[in-house]
Amino acid sequence: MNDSHVVDARGLSCPQPVLETKNALAAAAGGPVEILVDTVTSRENVCRFARSQGWHCRHEERDDGSFRIVLTR
Fold first, then answer.
1. N or C end of the chain: smaller count of CB under 10 Å?
2. Is the pLDDT of residue 20 over 60?
3. Over the range 3-19, which residues count as b (16 or more CB within 10 Å of their CB) and which as e?
4. Taking the model in full, what pTM does it have?
C-alpha cells in the first residue's frame, strides 16, 4: 500500500496491538493504516478500537493464519 502506515503487531500480547494502532492512527493524518496481527482477539480489539475512533475496518486472513487489517477514514 502506498502512502500508508504499517504496524506489524504479530507476536504482541493485548493490549499492545491496540496501543500500537492508537499511535499509528494519531500519526496517519487520515491515510490508510495497515495492521498485522496473529490472533482473532487482537483483530477484534484493533477493529473495535479503530471503529470507536471513527475509522472503517476491513480485514482478511492471510495464508500463514495471521490477519491483515486495513483502517481507513
1. N
2. yes
3. eebebebeebeeeebbe
4. 0.91
